[in-house]
Specification:
- Helix content is about 35%, strand content about 5%.
- By secondary structure, the chain is mostly helical.
- It has a two-stranded antiparallel ribbon with strand order 1-2.
- The chain is globular.
């Protein structure tokens, strides 16, 4: 019998307030949304222009979503997003 590699479990984080967003998480969110949008992803905030987009177009939409976090009505679940190519 051959041994199969067991995948690492994903780290899920749920943010409920803007102060919970770190600079690194914000940057990773912007990078992930940029990659997904440019790959033709279907879940794109209305504030985005059509692809191709860069971080400068994605950041305002991410910042608006972060500013609207509230534990009673708006939370943001996060999981790692691996972009193709070197990081």
């Amino acid at each position: 019998m051959s041994e199969q590699a067991v995948p690492e479990p994903l780290e899920f984080v749920q943010l409920a307030q803007p102060r919970e967003m770190t600079a690194r998480r914000r940057q990773e969110l912007i990078e992930c949304w940029t990659v997904v949008s440019n790959a033709g992803g279907a879940v794109i905030p209305l504030e985005f222009p059509g692809p191709p987009v860069g971080a400068e177009q994605v950041a305002p939409a991410a910042d608006a979503l972060i500013a609207g976090l509230d534990p009673r009505r708006g939370r943001l679940p996060l999981a790692p997003c691996a972009a193709p190519g070197p990081r």
